[in-house]
TrEMBL record, chains A, B, C, D:
UniProt keyword annotation of Repeat present: no
SUPFAM superfamilies, sorted: Formate/glycerate dehydrogenase catalytic domain-like, NAD(P)-binding Rossmann-fold domains
Cofactors that this protein relies on: NAD(+)
Classification lineage: Eukaryota, Metazoa, Chordata, Craniata, Vertebrata
Protein name: Adenosylhomocysteinase-like 1
Stored PROSITE patterns: ADOHCYASE_1, ADOHCYASE_2
Family label: Belongs to the adenosylhomocysteinase family.
Pfam families: AdoHcyase, AdoHcyase_NAD
Organism name: Dicentrarchus labrax (European seabass)
Length: 485, 485, 485, 485
């Protein structure tokens, strides 16, 4: 039984703030729900306890309440029981986490304040499926403040902050989510969000496409009333484009993933910080003087290189695109071939988006103690599979840190088993989540209020000009600084 | 009448890359051709020799030969007289300048070497109208090496390096250009390039659109044989799009101006260096510790800010676009309103592309000794006109440097009279010109060799993939570095 | 009575480099030994397991073995029982930690390899009192490899890594130390190191001066054979200078604390990284765009500013020393008065070494959410005492993170209660510890091998030239990089 | 005749602002005044016209007045003729240059304002021998404002700005200096300063030691009244220490050269800017993407590396001192051996202070177009002598730029013939000169006002604390910034 396996693992640290830890696994899971689901799900569970690097104290995990939330009868202080969370009594702690998050989400709070009077979402009935964290809670409560009714569920079986879910449920938002759901729980929760008496969604906010998928499969008639879908993830957007190509998309959809703000923040600015954070938390490495090769000089690579160079690392680049390679040169990085420098490197970082960027042959040639990690868009940049061979010994030295030991004693330090370092071993700053959440809110406002005919049954990017509201995404941050001095 | 034709067209050509000053005077001249033309022309000429910041010794200027080249009979050592330059005897000096330029134009030389065997321009008859500098000469000689026949003229009456023109003429390229042409000379030279017995152009390389314009007006039949136009400047491209809209473009045209390589280099990388160079050469200012405000955080602004920050200046930004403002914040710059900080600034730099970014009121509030200059795309960012009022005294303290003196003795240091600092007071690195020249060469190759039907009577950007040759633009630089270690 | 002796001496020892928290509690303890000592000790102990930010899994803490090590009979696999550690069975885990540490201590390993043949410490009998960590173990094992016999104890009652102590004991080094010693244990351990049958120390390696103090008080005759003392801490060095002034220093002493390498690394390079690490682990703050004021522009301040600026924070400085202020200006930082900017700041960092740099009045004026922390040399830079008043509410939101809540709801985020952020909330890179450890080893070699008369009964700095061995401190790092390419 | 040789050279540009162009030659000259003087003097003259990169328009050079100033009778508007300058009528232009200089010399102006009331130099009779530039004029006029009487002469035969000398003479300061003095003129001018009826110096301000030397030789009795010597140059300070060692120093002397402010500014901050300026003005090189090796990582090297790295150059270091090498590593630079990388470099910069850092063998291995220059403390870092061999061709392509051509056609670009690039091809910012000038003024004040016995017949550094006045050096700059926002 999955949950037994889950609790059997020594859980030294809490898994609280982690936003996306197993999204990769989740995505795999979502793609092949019928066949491979069970297997990959099990694997995810066995890994999940070690995936967190949260700084927050874990009130939740110390709970020894093993009863499934589905079997509990809970009522909030207003008498409602239209929710399903781990423990409604954690609401107060969750409220505090939400308040802390609000402090670094000024764009969203600013939007809330400006638009509160006009209630641009009055009449909107939004069903949402996202990670349920303090930051998402600020988004949900903003949508409510702008006039919307919301029902919410989790897009990942591990990423829910139970106390935040409790806090939302306490204020009257029907939330169906807890940390450590089973696969069955997962779809049950989605179903409870969509399929409720006397309430029908007219907007969908999705992250990963599972909610959209479920509605398509089970309640296609819902789409008659839905004015649009807002989707954040790469995978979900990909699915929407496939639907669109197949002529099956029956409502307008907004691709938030490719908005300028999200791209710049998720990649350049965010990775600039998370590469340092991820390496430090896992290895305590000193950056100064270290020889680092970064594979790929796109936005992620640029972020990584900027940060490492600034802290005194000696950084070189591999890049096959000539324009990006030229940019690397002009930014002062040596452009090299990986095989030429691999022997000397202290750290190898992949951010190309391609497969097998670091091959077994190159891993064989690395020096003792070399750290290898992945910041790119998949978990196949490093050929980790090739390391799972009998002549090599794996030794887990810390959470997310494996030593791969060669017969001659050489150790290579592999982080997060080649999965995304920034998701596995670092936290995403609230500020970044704020940018994305504000973009999501604006996309919902735009789709909900658009005159008929503006958007057809297609996938759209957020328009550059939306009147003064669009400016809120950034200008509130802008003025945050500009008004100061 | 040539001058009528000239004035009939908006000829505010982009003269982005030349290091010679007075291009704006040329523009003034163009704007008021009937009244002020003659006078401003005279003034320009008298200033031109002192306004140059080229590091090359100017052998030409010391020449006291006042005879017009049109009135001279000159023959090169091969017996040809199909050219018109200032003094064919300067060829040797010009050759040396070309050789020096070749050293930092490895992309172009690399293209020359690679493609020399296959002669991709065999049969091409190119008529060109560009600045005639050592760097352009490398381009022209590359085109010849690739099989083309060329005839060339200048796109600007001041920008010709006479000795380079001589060197080209000596090797057999018919060149019609000298420094300090009259307007009549200008069109005469173009005409001599196009209208020649027994030779008809089948490709046009233009910079500013004057050559194209002339062919349209006088020799429209030439277009029957022309396979395409390659245009570099903003103005020229604008004209082509207008022709295209009006359905009058009768051959394919390639817009080199908006290529990625040109944009990044002309703006970000180039300005990063030229802001330092321009300020240093004019004012000898120490950057460390100086309070600087940069108006506008586009590519030019980013380049300026990066450089100044790196050298210890304390930089803040004004920016109205919220995305750019957010980028400035994330890059560590205070985003301010100009009026809030104007009193404290040591240096004010405009790079917005807008008008009246620095107003008279703000100039009034600047502190004594404040330096004001413009790196943007027009000469109207600083309201210089407002400074030409009786209560203020102008004092020219150095070439390109005016002190504007207020009644109370306060001095504001105005550079280049508000025109582009990087054009007036700095040089453009050969490396940057090499990037553009290579792009031009590739565009010519592409248009000349494209199968019929690939390009219609429209304006195109250079395709991202052109087979291996396209890579040459950047990959030769790329491998320049990557092959080293 | 040991505790009397202990309290008689000012024991505010420097605990610069350990990553375990609560060192300040130890100091508090020392300050109020009679009254609050017992209580604060208890509190510290109860907090210590959660206060750690070491990335290593803590096998020790989960131990529920409450028996005092002094009451246990333990024997290593070689049959020796000349040690006293928590649990000799943890040796294997400790060995792995030591091996991991060795990978980033190339200077020390290089010294070990070079000097192993000549055994420059053959005959040396070293008694040591330092933090007992994986890094120190590498030092101890290097000393043994160079020919020394060692006996070791801990300089801090909390900082011992039990499994590392076990690993050392297992290899035959008599270690007397465990995490969570009582005060009585502390002196008992020291005594067991010094006072052993048939072995008398001829070298002392101390960190804080407690070992030296104990020998002076109890076994002054030992100094007859001792060739020198090597001391690392500020406090210990201070004590030695006092002894020297008083004419009571009876052997040569080497001041390692003030060596160039230690100063640069402990301050500039180390703080450059630990400010980021400490802030990120405690608050998950995004640095980009944050307004930060750093109080003090000495080496620590320089390190902090460099790192924060590089990651996009907008940094200003307060500094009273005019030379340092000028340096800040020339490095591109605004030099301000704290009171002028306090309202706008997102983060306030102290690194002056002075008292009350951040006053209650300034704390009152901070904006909601402002983060305040200390990187300086004492715990009094922020007037934390003034915050312990009835009108303010303290709320511990995470380990090392308190929200101080004003009556109007404003929250100020105080890190580590104003104690050193880098000690409390960050780890010290092994590389830095390696530099110090190598310096200590070289100092021991120098003192042990110096011809008679070279060093008198005084305090010395390590000589700049010691023959080729001195170079090892840095040159092994040097060549680590230079030999690569 | 020297002056004939001088005028025979085509002087395309002015030699106006150059502060130190020929100091090297001058120093050589000073060291062997009797024997080698004539020869090195001649050589200097032939080089001087090309040594300038001044941005100032040259009013002076256009003068065709060949009469020696010594043969002219000139009177200022106050009726005084106690001076000898090129042309007193240039006073107005010189005044403007002085006013421009004042704008960036706030430290000195601030000192002038603060101390004007108390006249700390009342009674001081200062004889000075320095470069006579606008910046020095601000110093001299500050000394006068503080109560001193001054007589002044030039320390270099080429460095005088004639119009500034005229402006000083016009205000009543007896100045004896012009540009292009003969050796005989040089000593005549010094003599006229010292040896005047009814006025005897009691303070000496020297730069290079020639004035001091002359007084020692010719008027030793002057030292009876002299309260002290302030010396700025390395050479002059060296001479003073020699005198001191030999027991021949008969008054206290202040070594301004080794003051903290001067060292930091002349080296780190100044070179950070002048390396860019010097390379750009001579070669127009683009820094981005260039492979650069900097030999030596002292303060000069640090300045060069910081700047080049910031502008996108790919910088590596050679360094033999292990501490400096470690710093280079920690700052993110590869530490290499020159011979390992010499083939790949685009630019080679020496700043070690040693001889033959770049050997003929290495020059042989450089690639075509490699730029070689020297920022160090002597002109022997590059083995230029080895390049003066028959198989190599020298070609002067621009002022300060030689192409050395190998038999196979390879060209190496040698700047300033291996002399100091920052002196030969760049300007020293007024701000830096201001720091030094203020230090000189403070040293004069300190020596003049010191109670008897504080300073003996020895060489001193400026004391760290001088009361509030000492703060002026930097704090006026400090407050310049800190008071602003």
């Amino acid at each position: 039984m999955p949950s037994a396996a889950f609790t059997a693992v020594p859980t030294l640290k809490s898994v609280k703030k982690i936003q996306f830890a197993n999204t990769e696994d989740k995505q795999e899971f979502s793609k092949f729900p019928t066949k491979a689901g069970r297997r990959s799900l099990s694997r995810s569970i066995s890994q999940s306890s070690t995936d967190s690097y949260s700084s927050a104290a874990s009130y939740t995990d110390s709970s020894d309440d093993e009863t499934s939330p589905r079997d509990k009868a809970q009522v909030n202080t207003h008498g409602s029981s239209d929710f399903c969370v781990k423990n409604i009594k954690q609401a107060e702690f969750g409220r505090r986490e939400i308040e802390i998050a609000e402090q670094d989400m000024s764009a969203l709070i600013s939007l809330r304040k400006r638009a509160q009077g006009e209630k641009p979402l009055a009449g909107a009935k939004i069903v949402g499926c996202t990670h349920i964290t303090a930051q998402t809670a600020v988004l949900i409560e903003t949508l409510v403040a702008l006039g919307a009714q919301c029902r919410w569920t989790a897009c990942n079986i591990y990423s829910t902050q139970n106390e935040v879910a409790a806090a939302l449920a306490e204020t009257g938002v029907p939330v169906f989510a807890w940390k450590g759901e089973s696969e069955d729980d997962f779809w049950w929760c989605i179903d409870r969000c969509v399929n409720t008496e006397g309430w029908q969604a007219n907007m969908i906010l999705d992250d990963g496409g599972d909610l959209t998928h479920w509605v398509y499969k089970k309640y296609p008639s819902v789409f008659k009333k839905v004015r649009g879908i807002v989707e954040e993830s790469v995978t979900g957007v990909h699915r929407l484009y496939q639907l669109s190509k197949a002529g099956k998309l029956c409502v307008p959809a907004m691709n938030v993933n490719d908005s300028v703000t999200k791209q710049k923040f998720d990649n350049l600015y965010c990775c600039r910080e998370s590469i340092l954070d991820g390496l430090k938390r896992t290895t305590d490495i000193m950056f100064g003087g270290k020889q680092v090769v970064v594979c790929g000089y796109g936005e992620v690579g640029k972020g990584c290189c900027t940060a490492l160079k600034a802290l005194g690392a000696i950084v070189c680049i591999t890049e096959i695109d000539p324009i990006c390679a030229l940019q690397a040169c002009m930014d002062g990085f040596r452009v090299v071939k990986l095989s030429e420098v691999i022997r000397q490197m202290d750290v190898v970082i992949t951010c190309t988006g391609n497969k097998n960027v670091v091959t077994r042959e190159q891993l064989d040639r690395m020096k003792n103690g070399c750290i290898v990690c992945n910041m790119g868009h998949s978990n196949t940049e490093i050929d980790v599979a090739s390391l799972r061979s009998p002549e090599l010994t794996w030794e887990r030295v810390r959470s997310q840190v494996d030593h791969i030991i060669w017969p001659d004693g050489k150790r290579v330090v592999l982080l997060a088993e080649g999965r995304l370092l920034n998701l596995s071993c670092s936290t995403v700053p609230t500020f970044v989540l704020s940018i994305t959440a504000t973009t999501q809110a604006l996309a919902l406002i735009e789709l909900f209020n658009a005159p008929e005919g503006r958007y057809k049954q297609d996938v759209y990017l957020l328009p550059k000009k939306m009147g003064k509201k669009k400016q809120t995404v950034t200008s509130s941050h802008h003025y945050k600084y500009s008004d100061k001095i």
